[in-house]
Amino acid sequence: MNLKQQLSQVGRYLLDHELAWGTSGNMSARIDEEHMLITASGTFMGDLNEDDFIITHIPTGTYEGTHKASKETPFHTGIYRRRPDVGAILHSSPFYSTLMACSDTPLLSELFIETMYYLEHAAYVDYHHPGTQELGDAIAEQAEKANVIIMRNHGVVVFDDHLTEAQMRLETLEMASRMIIQAQAAGIKLNKIPDQVVQSFLEDSKYKPRKRLGGK
Questions:
Q1: For 22, which DSSP code?
Q2: N- to C-terminal Cα separation, the chain
Q3: pTM higher than 0.90, yes or no?
Q4: What angle do CA 35, 173, 79 make, to 5 degrees?
Q5: Residue in 22, 24, 29 with CA at minimum distance from that of residue 3
Q6: Domain residue limits, the chain
Q7: Which of 101, 132, 178, 192 has a C-alpha 20 to 30 A away from that of 152?
């Protein structure tokens, strides 16, 4: 399966599992140090074909072909420039994660195994209009210290070394957001895992090697 087919498969999965909707969202995958594939502007996430992916030059943001690259190209290129370890980026607006982005409800990573691992490094950026260089710069700056970025009143961006892990990171974020919001509505107090146990899990458990920022 080539990279375009992998991206198409992820797009269908995100739509089928309510992790994306309509044309609200975009994604990319690194080809090499200087090039990425990114969804074209206005594409429907659940029905992507090979013409819906644009080869884009990471250092300059310029792209090939007649189709226009996603308007969010500035933050995709910004992340890849700052994080050479990143191989895939997903941006979408899932219901519960976006509800978190539109409120002051804090994201918790100390809830269960997957949140300890996939949500260890999360950051927020203030609202900027979609597609602007201001948004691209804000996200690129936070990408140096996070693998999950919550865009206030907009949505979320997650990234990892390959598409499968980026998808899992997004699913974990949405699951945690749903748990936090529904527990809050039901008056249920969530018990956080103690910090020392979290650190022990990240360093000593047999789950997965700890994901270091920048691959370090």
A1: T
A2: 29
A3: yes
A4: 25
A5: 29
A6: 3-206
A7: 192
User: How confident is the prediction along the chain (216 residues), in pLDDT tens digits per residue?
Assistant: 799 999 999 999 999 999 998 888 999 999 999 999 999 998 888 889 888 999 999 999 999 877 899 999 999 999 999 999 999 999 999 999 999 999 999 999 999 999 999 999 999 999 999 999 999 999 999 999 999 999 999 999 999 999 999 999 999 999 999 999 999 999 999 999 999 999 999 999 889 999 888 766
Q: Quick one: tokens of 34?
A: 């200087």
Residue 127 structure tokens: 């609202």
Contact 39, 48 (CB under 8 A): yes
CA distance 150 to 155: 6
Query: Angle, to 10 degrees, between the axis of helix 163-186 and the axis of helix 3-16?
Result: 10
% helix, strand, coil for the chain, step of 5: 40, 20, 40
